Amino acid sequence: MPEHILLRHRDIPEIADLDVYLKHDGFTAFEDVVKNQTPEQVIETVKTANLRGRGGAGFPAGVKWSFLTPGVFPRYVVANADESEPGTFKDREIMEGNPYQFLEGIAICSYAAQANTAYIYCRGEFWDLAHELEGKIEALTKRGLLGEGLFDTDYSLMIYVYLGAGAYICGEETALLSSMEGEIGHPRLRPPFPAAEGLFAKPTVINNVETLTNLPPIINQGADWYCSIGTEKSTGPKIFSLSGHVERPGNYELPFGTTFRELIFEHGGGIRDGKAIKGILPAGASAPLLPATDEVLDTPMDYESVPKVGSQLGSASIIVLDETVDIAWMAYKTTSFFKHESCGKCAPCREGTYWMYHILNRFQNGNAAPADIDLLNRVALGIQGKCFCALGEFSITPVVAGIEHFRSDFEALTGDGK
Amino acid sequence: MLVDKYPKEIDRILAKFPPERKRAAALPLLYLAQREYGHVSKEAIREVAGILDVDPTQVGGLVGFYSLLHAKPGGKYRLQVCTDLPCALRGAEEFAEELCDNLRIKMGETTEDGLITVEEVKCLAGCDKAPMFQLQAPDGIHYFENQDLDSAMELIEELRQRGDDA
Ligand SMILES: Cc1cc2nc3c(=O)[nH]c(=O)nc-3n(C[C@H](O)[C@H](O)[C@H](O)COP(=O)(O)O)c2cc1C
Ligand code: FES
């Protein structure tokens, strides 16, 4: 891709300045939809573009918006900026580097949803960033691009920033709503889905930062143009957060369908210190570990292909492990994350992550017995399908796949169990 | 009292939400309380609950749940090193250990002068710039990336010099 569609600050360094953003077609898409299009038309375009949610699940955004309960107002839009999956740092770069395109995306989404209030739920750690965004929103309001009676129509929109306070689970959309309503961030039973009963029990659209940032170019350049990027079913550009043992970690905006090999070896400069690659976690800590076989490396990174080799693309946070990594240690690290972040609402996740952590700790301390490998697998499979939300389900995936593909790493750490 | 000292700020926070959904202001008010008192004391919880018209136990539960809210006082600054998997692959655990050794504390402890508490935290979305940490300071939370022992010690020295006017 010659030019960035999302990480435009890489091509236009000053684009976080409102004047510069406006000079580069900023807010023309929002003005166009507010003045010349109905909300239904916008939803149709986004459906045709097949814009899929970038927060992990890949659900088509336009389809989700069309689920809003008709006739019920007020409605809300919430941008999910909780970005807490280990290895994910793309939303942060968008909001720091190209914030106005993100804010324009929120505005377009709000117009399509017929919402007059939108919130950005930022993880609490993004304190400085959240304050920057508040400044940008103020600048837009001063220019008449947000606020009452926009572009001489009767459409009004306010955007507010909401700061979380440190909890991975609050990235899950219903836990996010609980958190925003002043409650403990526990997930809620779905249905009702947020489109029917979301924030303050009103119809609500929740989309990821990256998803929303795709909207201005889709409106400006059209659904056909958008569909010409990526693969047939996973359209458009995707930001891949590349971390771990590569020469050049960072975000790479590439078309869906780029292979792991191209990302890691061309863009990422290959494995650090001339080592060999051992495994790939394609969706942070939340999907099965893949052994770095040729078949895996040549797999296109899109929502259809990654499941075919046994994992998920999720939020596309690619963590690369070289040959020195002990997979029992990796499983210990990911499990320690989930044990810490389990919200405690349901027993399978709370207890399961606790027990997995304790067994894996035995491997780290040299106290594991050979039978602990199967015990660990049993605990993991025992909670599978029984958790209230996806967090618990995510937690077992690196562990089970780790044992499946690299059992000898676990065996090497076992002794007589004393 | 927060209501006497920050009436404008509290109004600004409450204005973001529908009046009948005041409770949504809980986290922003708790941040305000923490900034004022250094941690969220029992008294602060009662104050926030009073503003929101809810029972203090409902507010207290939040302080226990969210990792950025602290029920107990710590060092003036909490230096929180990410040692999650991606950062650990790039030397974060060694960095954290060196830092603690250098400050002659164990992980989770506070320096003798009460200035710095070093803690381990999970992913902060800065994985490509490890080792990295966030500094929870009286005025907010700030990121420091691509760190090494020298840069971290330099920062700590600066914080020490800054003394009470920070
Ligand atoms: C445990 C858990 C954590 C999540 N964290 C995030 C997150 O940090 N950011 C995000 O956008 N979506 C996250 N999601 C997905 C959201 O629930 C939701 O699907 C998403 O925000 C919808 O936006 P999208 O359709 O644009 O992807 C998480 C889901 C789960 C189960
Ligand atoms: S793992 Fe440390 S910032 Fe992501």
Task: Describe the structure using short key phrases.
heterodimer, A: about 425 residues, alpha/beta, Rossmann fold, Ubiquitin-like (UB roll), de novo design (two linked rop proteins), 3 domains, 5-stranded mixed β-sheet, 4-stranded parallel β-sheet, 9 strands, globular, B: about 170 residues, alpha+beta, Arc Repressor Mutant, subunit A, Glutaredoxin, 2 domains, 4-stranded mixed β-sheet, about 45% helix, binds flavin mononucleotide, binds FE2/S2 (inorganic) cluster
Task: Write a structural description.
The complex is a heterodimer of chains A (418) and B (166). Chain A folds into 3 domains: 8-227, Rossmann fold, CATH 3.40.50; 237-322, Ubiquitin-like (UB roll) (Roll); 327-411, de novo design (two linked rop proteins), CATH 1.20.1440. In chain A, strands 6-5-9-7-8 form a 5-stranded mixed β-sheet, sandwiched between helices. The termini of chain A are far apart. Helix content of chain A is 43%, strand content 13%. Chain A is an alpha/beta fold. Chain B is an alpha+beta fold. Chain B has 2 domains: 2-65, NADH-quinone oxidoreductase subunit E (Arc Repressor Mutant, subunit A, Orthogonal Bundle), CATH 1.10.10; 77-165, Glutaredoxin (3-Layer(aba) Sandwich), CATH 3.40.30. Chain B contains 8 helices and 4 strands; from the N terminus they run H-H-H-H-H-E-H-H-E-E-E-H. Chain B has a 4-stranded mixed β-sheet. In chain B, strand 3 (133-137) and strand 4 (140-144) form a beta hairpin. The longest helix of chain B has 14 residues, at 149-162. The complex binds flavin mononucleotide and FE2/S2 (inorganic) cluster (FES). Flavin mononucleotide is lined by residues 53-57, 59, 61, 80, 82-85, 169, 171-173, 206-208, 211, 389-391 of chain A.
